[in-house]
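Design job #97: recover the sequence.
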């Protein structure tokens, strides 16, 4: 597919992508590579200038009825949570989506509380949203999406602005959501987290996808890293150095995180 903005900027160029249901998927690449633009095609905010988008094999026709159903199934959390939070209190903000889905009041209350418990925001449910920290705002934005129980959740830089502890908690939260059977798709410049977390990685450069594969395939492809201006995750770099120095044996599968590397070191 292709997509151009009104000023003529061609943001997506002859791109083809297939995302497998139930996977943890990461899109990586430089700023301006087209990641956010692509995301906004997934739930019909943008419409391709050329080509089609399919959901569950069905072509999106952009009718009001189909877009409404699509957006029930696919939730997007933007990089800046202030772009999503607009109600007076946390509870009101999280309940906005379920209310607009037309659910009975009792169902809304149940789904909102479940989402807020999962995101550790129930204790701040009565707080004004503008008094929250950046990390709290991100959790509230995610709770608002989870409360609608989408099949797919898309997150643009979910760990941006979070400290290491907050980053770890966020990735655990996304793991939990994925374990319910949902598909999780994110963009991130935190390549260490992407390497540790993702099942599949798509690399974008200049409006196109230049590589896709599992984390080790992507981060061992020196040409792809060079073209997309990416760096090898530190765990993989340290592991390769230790193997080269005969300090540890080469493994069939490289370690993906700190704990796996520490286990190899004994």
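Job complete. Output follows.
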């Amino acid at each position: 597919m292709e997509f151009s903005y009104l000023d003529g900027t061609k943001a997506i160029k002859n791109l083809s992508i297939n995302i497998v249901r139930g996977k943890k998927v990461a899109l990586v690449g430089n700023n301006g590579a087209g990641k956010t633009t692509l995301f906004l095609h997934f739930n019909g905010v943008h419409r391709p200038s050329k080509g089609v988008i399919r959901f569950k094999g069905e072509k999106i026709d952009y009718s009001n009825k189909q877009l409404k159903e699509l957006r029930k199934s696919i939730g997007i959390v933007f990089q800046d949570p202030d772009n999503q939070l607009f109600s007076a209190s946390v509870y009101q903000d999280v309940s906005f989506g379920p209310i607009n889905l037309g659910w009975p009041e009792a169902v809304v209350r149940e789904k909102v509380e479940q989402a807020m418990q999962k995101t550790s925001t129930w204790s701040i449910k009565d707080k004004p949203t503008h008094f929250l920290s950046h990390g709290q705002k991100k959790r509230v934005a995610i709770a608002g999406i989870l409360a609608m129980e989408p099949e797919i959740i898309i997150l643009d830089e979910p760990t941006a602005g979070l400290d290491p502890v907050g980053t770890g908690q966020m990735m655990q939260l996304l793991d939990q959501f994925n374990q319910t059977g949902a598909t999780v798709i994110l963009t991130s410049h935190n390549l260490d987290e992407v390497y540790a977390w993702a099942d599949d990685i798509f690399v974008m450069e200049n409006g196109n996808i230049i590589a896709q594969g599992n984390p080790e395939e992507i981060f061992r492809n020196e040409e792809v890293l060079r073209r997309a201006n990416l760096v090898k995750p530190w765990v993989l770099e340290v592991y390769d150095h230790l193997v080269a120095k005969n300090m540890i044996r080469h493994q069939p599968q490289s370690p993906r995180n700190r704990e796996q590397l520490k286990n190899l070191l004994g």
